[in-house]
């Protein structure tokens, strides 16, 4: 692994490492730290307080575990999220599927996509807002995905925050409401 001189930031993971236990001296996982690695399993200690943009982009990642004592980040449904902001930080896809946990209220840009490309994304009724171009990530940019909504009311969506070419599956009787919402999100 490559660290900053003070060993507080993980900069890069060597391609040959397949099981990564981030050392307890690390406070920041740097941008793109796992982009070119073959890491399959990652353990995040309680010391990590910042996961930078797209730091977990890696097609080989199969599991992420976080110390139960980590005050900043949690994990549910293979999704690493910020406990404070309720924003998804890392989506770990399993066979192309992601179901956001109820702890995630927002999808925002610079999200890490670990594992496979997203083919199906399930949005719970507790989800609040799509922010910026969260899907414009090097691993998901050109993937057409099914987005399954569980709420009868569409979440908020910033301008151009919905993936182009996505197939949206909505609750029965909500088609018109979601069509209006989709058109408004591009104005």
Structural class: mainly beta
Portion in helices: under 10%
Biggest sheet layout = 4 strands, mixed
Give me the count of strands: 18
Instruction: Supply the number of helical segments.
Output: 1
Order of helices and strands: EEEEEEEEEEEEEEEEEEH
Strand content: 25-35%
Mean pLDDT: 90
Radius of gyration: 17 Å
Strand order of the largest sheet: 1-2-4-6
Distance between the termini: 45 Å
Low-confidence stretches: none
Instruction: Give the overall shape, derived from the CA principal axes.
Output: elongated
Can you walk me through this structure?
With 187 residues, the protein is mainly β. The protein has a four-stranded mixed sheet with strand order 1-2-4-6, with no helix packed on it. The longest helix has 10 residues.
Gist of the model:
The chain is mainly beta and 187 residues long.
Keywords, please?
187 residues; single chain; elongated; 4-stranded mixed β-sheet; 18 strands
Q: What's the SSE blueprint?
A:
Elements: E1 2-3, E2 9-12, E3 19-21, E4 28-29, E5 41-44, E6 50-51, E7 63-66, E8 73-76, E9 79-82, E10 88-93, E11 97-99, E12 106-107, E13 112-115, E14 120-123, E15 129-130, E16 146-149, E17 156-157, E18 167-169, H1 175-184
Parallel strand pairs: 2-4, 3-5, 4-6, 5-7, 10-13, 11-14, 12-15, 14-16, 15-17, 16-18
Antiparallel strand pairs: 1-2, 8-9, 9-10
